[in-house]
Amino acid sequence: QVRLVESGGGLVQTGGSLRLSCVASGRIFSSYAMGWWRQSPGKEREFVATINWNNSSLYHATSVKGRFTISRDNAKNTVYLQMNSLQPEDTAIYYCAATETKHILILRSQYDYWGQGTQVTVSS
């Protein structure tokens, strides 16, 4: 079993930045690919970014490419999401997810473990 705990959300003005963190406990974090997803009220949960087990492969959704960056520190069992140039449409609950594979994945059904989420609100 893997437990994921997100932090770093909050209220920020348009154009601001936040860094989300997700700490994993349980099984071998360094063997898992990780992802960030988000969900706004009334919308489906959408993919944001994913990173493979050893930092050698990343993939970001088109909507955040160039503004958000996913990274990980296996020594700290932590995955990060650096979010810059935030816009009101980025407002959502952001979820960390883990998959029992080493390679990047972009389908929700492919992820095995989820955190509880952290709220990000961008004011205009």
Strand content: over 45%
Please tell me how large the radius of gyration is. Answer: 13 Å
Average pLDDT, rounded to a whole number, is 95
Which stretches are poorly predicted, pLDDT < 50 over at least 5 residues? Answer: none
How many beta-strand runs?
11
Question: What's the order of the H and E elements?
Answer: EEEEEEEEEEE
What's the gist of this structure?
With 124 residues, the chain is mainly β.
Describe this structure in words.
The protein has 124 residues and is mostly beta strands. 0% of the residues lie in helices and 51% in strands. It contains no helices and eleven strands. Strands 2, 4, 5, 6, 9, 10 and 11 form a seven-stranded mixed β-sheet that branches. The protein has a four-stranded antiparallel β-sheet with strand order 1-3-8-7, with no helix packed on it. It is globular.
Key features of this structure:
single chain; 124 residues; mainly beta; 7-stranded mixed β-sheet; 4-stranded antiparallel β-sheet; 0% helix; 51% strand
